What we know:
β14 and β15 (382-387) form a beta hairpin. The chain folds into three domains: 2-160, PH-domain like, CATH 2.30.29.170; 176-319, Roll (PH-domain like), CATH 2.30.29.170; 343-498, PH-domain like, CATH 2.30.29. The chain has 14 helices and 18 strands. It has helices at 2-7, 30-33, 130-138, 154-163, 176-183, 293-303, 313-319, 343-349, 365-368, 444-452, 458-470, 480-498, 524-561, 570-576; strands at 38-48, 57-67, 72-77, 88-94, 115-118, 121-128, 187-195, 204-212, 217-222, 235-240, 278-281, 284-291, 354-360, 371-377, 382-387, 398-404, 429-432, 435-442. It starts with a helix and ends with a helix. By secondary structure, the chain is an alpha+beta fold. The chain is 26% helix and 22% strand.
Amino acid sequence: MLDELSHHDPILTYGDPKSKRGPKARFVPSYVAYDKKVLKFLAYFKQNTPNSQEEKYRVRFVHILYFLEDDTICIMEPAVDNAGIPQGKLLRRHRVPKNDAGEYYHWKDFDVQDDVCFYGIYYHIYDCDPFTRQLYESEGIDLREGEPSTPDDPYIHDRKMRLRPHSYVTPSQWDKLRQFLHMDRQVLRFFVVRDDRDELYGELRKYVLLYYLADDTIEILEVHTKNDGRDPFPCFLRRQRVPKKLEHSLTFPSISLEVSPKEVKVWFLDTDLKIGETVCIYNSRFLIYDCDEFTRNYYREQYQMTDFTPIDVTRRAQGLEKRVAKPPPITEPLVLKTPAKDYMKYLENDGIILRFEAVLESQKPYHRERRFIISYYPSDDTISIYERVLRNSGVIGGKFLHRRRVDKPESTKEHPVYFTLRDFCIGATLQIYNHRFQIVNADQFVLKFLEANPAGLEGTIASLRQFFQANPTAQPVCTTEEGAASDERDEREGRARSASPGPGLEVVQVSQMPDMNQPGYRSPVDQYLEQKQRAQAEKEQQQARAEGMAETCADMKRKTLEPRKVTFCEDAVQRCD
Length: 577
């Protein structure tokens, strides 16, 4: 023991005789022998910072000093630049209690890669100095090797990242303040026209588009004429920055409906406005047909443009006939015309329902658990969505979307585009009325139906085959109860929508068709043509009756308006005289 060696002289078992030995060593007390001999251990501890938004904890590195002369311990924290906390002596020099039994820490209780607890704080020893390691080796104790790395302090690491050299981009000299100071009160004026005569009650209307060079904002004013029948409100679009294209993110609309930079990538600039261009502002198309002299001079100086030939929009207005709704006749019955339908497609695919399972894409966790059943009807390309009922979800399930044709986000009034079976691939995302649905499952019947009708559906068939190969035990999309309830509702809606192809016509259901081998069998097409002929004959009879009634009414009116002849008796006249 180190204590015994400090109080006793060494005794040589083998060696020179006592007569040749030197003088006896002088007694040295332990506090003199171990004076200024200190063991140094490198350690760290983690300190929580609950009220900080930048960090959750701090890593503080300390030096544990053990004084051999009196077995006292002191803890020192080296100074770190810009630490923001007081540093130095964390624990004064004294004997540290080890447990409640009255024992104190001894130098044998320390080892590298161990944890020691001083007054409720755990210090992890990750290394020591060479003197400490040599002293332990002289006493026959081997310390563990030091740890190759230590955790970084988040705050100090963030400070170093801020202070490290980094590239700096010089800001553009043409900033917003300079743009405002140089371009204030300078406005480009364009004369535009909005032509929506291809729609019902549409007309050709003129506007003035003002582009403010000070902040790149646009304002549209309406041009009024005498007796135009419109309120004298000139502002069609208030002054604002106009986006060229909106890209709605998953979080739009959020708590505020204002457009943020997440939805807008490119704004309208002065380079996008020129004579002959058609600009689309919030789904309204404006044709630029002329501009003022200041605008011409601006484009000549800035962009060296020379062609400013105005477009004659009056000639274009005269060449297009104005669409006016034809009022219904007064004396004739009102005959409703149904839209044209593909009856052969309806007869072949009636009663067929293709079901897909989808999840709702959202950043909100409670929306991700919702499950939907998308039913596609190939008879008329309609879609219905049914939401599954989940217990304790807080969301009422049931009918989410009634059976109808759903147009795509890029669809317009002039060119409508609807969802078809090509869009229902496994993993595809369908944006239906600002809701994003991801297809995750389908019925086995869907793959069989598409394989029997593969025209133009190769991508959908390939995705389904790959899905069923990877998931051979995939569950059906919906249970029998859910399918029966959904089918009953959708059947009623589909019958109300497509069971009346015309006045007096009845749709022949496939399930009610007689056997083709029976004598006197007539195909559904023949039956449909006969029904159509009967309906045409009934229509002609109604028109004939209406014409007869009109002639009768005209005769009665003519007789009522004829002047009446009045005769007087001569005897009565003489008596009156």
